[in-house]
Structure formats: structure tokens, C-alpha cells
Amino acid sequence: MKKLRPLPRQIVSDGTVLKKTVLAFVLFAVFVVAIWTIFSRIKRQPTEAGALKPLRKGLDFNETVFSSVFNKAKLVEEYPVSKAVKKVRVNGMVGLTESIEEESWRLIIVRAPGDTFQLTLDDIKQLPKKDLVFDFKCIEGWDQVTHWGGVPFKTFMHHYQLDQQSKMKYIGLQTPDKRYYVGIDMPSALHPQTLLCYEMNGKPLPSDQGFPLRLIIPVKYGIKHLKRIGTLSFSNEKPRDYWAERGYDYYAGH
After folding, report:
1. Which residues of the chain have pLDDT under 50?
2. How far is Cα 111 from Cα 114, in angstroms, rounded to an integer?
């Protein structure tokens, strides 16, 4: 067998090594300066709806894309009740600091400015109930399989003859003390799994989970699941949204 000859060794001079090292450091420095310059320019941009303007434009673009492909017939995965956690995580108490009694609580529905009506919890419980066990997702990154019960929002809208309002673009919800508020696109609100919820794990909602009535909207992250609904309204303009005003995504779908 013919013996292979070893390849000749290439000798790199110290000067060549130095030049390549210097070039690498220069390129790295240019990269760092470029990133710092871009970041500084972004930070100097004016804010728009609670976020720096470039960020808000990016979030608005994402909203346009996600809302255009939203399919109200596509359901999130449901689980058997046995999969639901017994201890549901509490995340956020804005709007829940004051005590409230079921007897004095009312859901105020604003059909139009100056045109309102009120419902008790018993009124809502008269409507057909739906139980839902799904994977509740938080924008912070955690999730839990949880069990909820209440009235499908779509059923509620039809029962109270809010068909004209359902043609509008948004619903707005806020707590009785007006400290927490969300705006939600109407197609997501009318999704068949969206609930006006009054039960958790087969029992009345605890106070820290939104007693006596909260929103459960599985196609959205937790920031949209408003606890303790006080007022419900309709609009063709985006209603105020607590976390969007603080720089978060308004659409908040997943």
C-alpha cells in the first residue's frame, strides 16, 4: 500500500496573527457601536399608546396579521376535569382590592351612550351554562390547565338582543372601581369558548379570581381575562386597555 505523505505545515507569521486579531476587535467594536446607536435612537423616539413608537408600530403590525388569520371556528384544546389544577394561580389584584357583595353587585351593559341596563348574577345564571377546561396562558410565560363555568358570551349577546352591538368592532370591560379595564376585538369576544364566568372548579369564583363575574377568553393571554366585571360597553374605536397603555400588545392573542 502506498504511504500517504503528510501535508506541508503552513507557518503563519506573528504579524498576520496580529493583523487578524486587530481586525476582529475592530469589527466587534463597529458592531457594538452600531447596536448602541440604533438602541439610542429608538429610546429617543416619542411614545404612542404607552410604547415607543417603533415598538407600537410593530405590535400593531402583529395585530393586523393575527386578526386577519383569526378563525372563530377553531377551538382551543379542551381537557377532562381531572386534568385541571386544584390550586389556580392568582396573578394580579388590580381592581379587586375593595370587597364586594353579590347582592349589591350589578353588571352594567352600555348599549349606547345614555342607553344602559343592569343585570344581577342570578339573571346571568338563568342562561345556559358551559364548563370549560383549557390551558390558561399568561404573557409572563406560565400556563395552567384550569376549570371554569359560566355563560358563553355569544349566548349572552343573543339572549339580551345585542345583535346590533355584536356588529361593532370592540367590547370594553372594566371593574366596578374602574381601576382595571380591557378592550377586546369582537370576533374574539364572540368565539364559542369565551365565557362570562361565575364558577371555578365547580364552585363560585373566589374574590381573588374575580368574584362574582369575570371574563374567560381562551384565545387571549391572561391580561385580557378581566376579573370582576362591572361595566360592559361596545365601540368601533379601541376602548382603553390597562396593559396596552403600559406598552403591552393590545391584541394579546396566541
Report:
1. none
2. 8
User: Using an 8 Å Cβ cutoff, are 70 and 253 in contact?
Assistant: yes
Q: Hey, what domains does the chain have and what are their CATH numbers?
A: 47-85+102-246 (3.90.420.10)
* pLDDT, tens digit, 9 for 90 and up, residues 190-211: 999 999 999 999 999 999 999 9
**b/e code 227-248 from CB counts within 10 Å (16+ = b):** bbbbbbbbbeebbebbbbeeeb
**What is the tens place of the pLDDT at every residue in 160-188?**
999 999 999 999 999 999 999 999 999 99
Count how many Cα atoms sit within 13 Å of the Cα of residue 167 in the half-sphere of its side chain.
Answer: 3
Neighbours of 150 (CB within 10 A): 26
Q: State how far the Cα of 26 lies from the Cα of 51, in Å rounded to an integer.
A: 34
Q: How far apart are CA 112 and CA 52, in angstroms?
A: 33
SS3 52: strand
- Which among 165, 221, 157 is positioned nearest to 192, based on CA atoms? 157
CA dihedral 239, 244, 246, 247 (to 10 degrees): -140
